[in-house]
Amino acid sequence: MSRVIVQRSFGSPSVLEVAEVAVPPSDELAPGEVLIRVAYAGVNPVDIKTRKGGAVAGLFDGFPVTVGWDLAGTVNAVGSEVTDFAIGDRAFGMSRFPQPGRAYAEHVVADATDLVHTPDAVSDEQAAALPLAGLTVWENLVDLAELQATQRIAIMGAGGGTGHLAVQIAHHLGATVTAVASAGKLDWLRSLGADVTVDYRSDDLVTLFADRPFDVVFNASDTTAGTGIAVTRPGGVVIDISETVTDDDRALAARTGVRVEVPSVTRNRVALQTLADLAARGSLVSHISSTFPLADAAAAHAEIEAGHARGKILLQP
Ligand SMILES: NC(=O)c1ccc[n+]([C@@H]2O[C@H](COP(=O)([O-])OP(=O)(O)OC[C@H]3O[C@@H](n4cnc5c(N)ncnc54)[C@H](OP(=O)(O)O)[C@@H]3O)[C@@H](O)[C@H]2O)c1
């Protein structure tokens, strides 16, 4: 048998419960699928929004449902047409997003094309913390904003699961990084590559940067994107991953010549491999603040919902 977190209704963390199901039989894998024995599943805010009935909940096909997309583990079985994984290989990725990935489980059937090999130098914990947050950063800073070494970026929500990877990747690209977070995270963010840090509780970003110096603002905090727009130069871009942009914000952006993007992460194996390579070289390190047993998924959700996560939170089946 295999344990999995299920919910039979949308709602508070208490809807998450443990169920036992049969291990998916290897002879029932579709072409291109692999069976993963999950070592760690990563927890992301989209899991929480979906648990409540928002985000991608509409893509589930009736209850019970299992949330979770990030996973790292070991290949237990391979379907036909899988040429790049063998039984025993370590693998990680973001499974099937935005379709149900069902990663909060001991065993997960995944598409091999959503996974890459976990490098020897990277632990399963590190790997499970990377996919959704890391892909979000890579797709937006590199592919969308084309962040250059000569440019200045502000990262709001810099101490969270996505933000702390954004600080490292922007630093890796050579950009000048301003990290916006609560006071207790600022020394840590400087150690990750932030050139300038701002405590959003004691300093006002718009007053500090009235000259609008930023080429790119990456907003990973659930506060208004308007602040980011007000400090971005004409022709610059605000990437609002937390989707807080209002009509007033858009009007401000139009008046001041700032582009606003509200993107959604996609499965992207090329970018995932780049993240794996960066992690293998030590250029990208996930900070894991807590690891909960699978059965304590509700506590993991509550910790993120409190709104001040430091780095990533994992589940261990
Ligand atoms: N569109 C997409 O594809 C996509 C992908 C990934 C994530 N997201 C969304 O992006 C958001 C962030 O995700 P995440 O995984 O990074 O969340 P997270 O791990 O919960 O981090 C959020 C961070 O924001 C900080 N914060 C709270 N208020 C702030 C403020 N006023 N100014 C600056 N920082 C503040 C929090 O800590 P402190 O207050 O202690 O600094 C926390 O570290 C979520 O809404 C998530 O759903 C969207």
Structure description:
This protein folds into two domains: 2-130 and 286-316, Quinone Oxidoreductase, Chain A, domain 1 (Alpha-Beta Complex); 132-261, NAD(P)-binding Rossmann-like Domain (Rossmann fold). The mean pLDDT is 97. With 317 residues, the chain is α/β, with parallel strands linked by helices. The longest helix is centred in the middle third of the chain and has 14 residues, at 131-144. 26% of the residues lie in helices and 27% in strands. Bound molecules: NADP nicotinamide-adenine-dinucleotide phosphate.
Q: What's a quick, concise take on this entry?
A:
The protein has helices spanning 45-51, 124-128, 131-144, 163-172, 186-191, 205-208, 226-230, 247-256, 269-280, 297-305, and strands spanning 2-6, 17-21, 33-43, 70-78, 90-94, 107-111, 115-117, 152-156, 176-181, 196-199, 214-219, 232-240, 259-261, 288-293, 312-316. With 317 residues, the chain is of the alpha/beta class. It has two domains: 2-130 and 286-316, Medium-chain alcohol dehydrogenases, catalytic domain (Quinone Oxidoreductase, Chain A, domain 1), CATH 3.90.180.10; 132-261, NAD(P)-binding Rossmann-like Domain (Rossmann fold, 3-Layer(aba) Sandwich).
**Could you state the CATH homologous superfamily of the largest domain?**
Medium-chain alcohol dehydrogenases, catalytic domain
Mean pLDDT, to the nearest integer, reads: 97
N-to-C CA distance:
13 Å
CATH architecture classification of the largest domain: Alpha-Beta Complex
List SSEs in N-to-C order. Answer: EEEHEEEEHHEHEHEHEHEHEHEHE
C-alpha Rg, in Å? 20 Å
